[in-house]
Amino acid sequence: xxxxxxxxxxxxxxxxxxxxxxxxxxxxxxxxxxxxxxxxxxxxxxxxxxxxxxxxxxxxxxxxxxxxxxxxxxxxxxxxxxxxxxxxxxxxxxxxxxxxxxxxxxxxxxxxxxxxxxxxxxxxxxxxxxxxxxxxxxxxxxxxxxxxxxxxxxxxxxxxxxxxxxxxxxxxxxxxxxxxxx
Length: 182
What we know:
The protein is α+β, with helices and mostly antiparallel strands. The chain is built from five helices and nine strands. The two termini are 28 Å apart.
């Protein structure tokens, strides 16, 4: 998947006619990081992918689905795409991958104990998200307001600015995320 993702990132940049320098300016990601990601020398972190998605006007799930085969109506658990940001302690499973004709998707997120991921902007301004904690405790900061969620709690939001997801318990956190394009 990393090789297909790298190729898609390079394709998107070429489709826009941008140099690495131009994309670096637009995304705030260094040229060297972009170059290594496009050559599959490194897998981009969740924060880097989020910045690139914002520039390209896509959700992370949509970008990741573009490197998968044609989406199926039924996606068996064993076939659901999984992406990992190991250094950040984050695993993302696309339970219901995005489809061109639909605006919503379902994602399962897992954060190891102490994991802390900050996104400086949404991939698509006004993105609707519903976060349902399935196990553990999660702290989500939206517009400088921290929300403490435990098993069973659900936070719904429209994302316009920075957000932060932090595993707030000793055992990590597992959550469902419903994402709806505006």
